Amino acid sequence: MLLGFVGLPNSGKSTMLKAATLADVQIANYPFTTIEPNQAVGYLITDCPCRKLGVSCNPQNSKCLNGKRWIPVKLLDVAGLVPGAHEGKGLGNRFLDDLRQADGLIHVLDASGLTDSEGKQRPSDNLWDPENNIKVLEGEIDEWLFDIIQKNIEKVENLARMKKIPVERLLGEKLSGLGINEDDIKRASGKADMKSREFATILRKESKPIMIAANKIDKESARNNYESIKSKRQNVIPTSADFELALREAAEHGMIDYQPGDSDFSLKGDVNEKQKEALEFIRRNVLKVYGSTGVQKALNSMVFDMLHYIPVYPVASISRLSDSKGNVLPDVHLVKKGTTMKELAGKVHSTMADKFIGGLDLDRKKVGADHELKSGDVVEIIFSK
Ligand SMILES: Nc1nc2c(ncn2[C@@H]2O[C@H](COP(=O)(O)OP(=O)(O)O)[C@@H](O)[C@H]2O)c(=O)[nH]1
Ligand SMILES: [Mg+2]
Known about the structure:
CATH architecture of the largest domain: 3-Layer(aba) Sandwich
Low-confidence stretches: none
Shape: flat
CATH class of the largest domain: Alpha Beta
Largest sheet: 7 strands, mixed
Structural class: alpha/beta
Mean pLDDT: 93
Bound molecules: guanosine-5'-diphosphate, magnesium ion
Number of helices: 12
Oligomer: single chain
Distance between the termini: 32 Å
CATH topology of the largest domain: Rossmann fold
Number of domains: 3
Helix content: 25-40%
């Protein structure tokens, strides 16, 4: 799972990444083998089944804090979005290469209108309409996809005719490196001609879902812009990266009790008047108005709502709720909604899918290969020896 943070210069990408990754969580078995220089680790935070089951857990590939399971995900700093990036402007090529890898994109948008689409400051009496920046990002991805399709479509059509196989399948193979598959193409080709710009737009929506983080929501001028964007689009979350960073830093210094995603904090330890005032400002202007700083919500919502993943907890023994070493609720896996018991088995033990027999649910009831998993399920997978 790789989430890309993308946005025009000075929209707050670095601040949001810093906030999202600032957490002191020690994890025993990191699920990632490699982390590239422009990647970092952030966390999804969900209810851990340990509370409901009344057990204390020993997470291995994740972390449990106060009954909340922290699930690591890779975050990518997608640099170089500028108008014309698809033609190589700015860091165009790096931008496209980063996009290629991302499962979903979080568009960090300066909703305050204080910076234009080149990242330059605007005077407060002549603000920028952030809607323009959304069009820039969408437009760059669409043009990039459109160019790739134009370059390939004739060859693909000829080959498909020769080999008597569907053109969708061949194009799907050609574009698989962009995270686009045959099904995406079939859905899009039902709606538009493959050579049209509209086709590229539909493919972008299918394959690179974009969440809009309407950032700098703490600024007065961001409020109306946010309302206006939200009235026209789905998947818009108001965020204050600056305030989330401030809260996480305050929590780290022992000044407040606060967990990412919380709707409030409580003061503790040594806090001077000035700090108290600053924290009170955050509470009054963002937490009370929007329910949170939005940063954690954006991550969770991207993965669970837009990409349709669910967390599931496979265990070696359902009666002990543990792995073979006795670790209770050791690992959480992110799987697509609709994943079956047998598909999960294949993900947990790739070599053992053939030895799959069935599963046991929390009631120790047997479930078959086609049993669809639900969010938060704890299951035992049964293999033949
Ligand atoms: N008021 C406000 N300022 C922010 C917020 N997020 C970032 N900034 C400021 O915007 C400027 C650019 O932020 P940065 O993270 O470097 O942007 P990037 O170029 O997209 O990586 C910095 O001065 C940040 O402090 C926010 O949520 N609220
Ligand atoms: Mg930056």
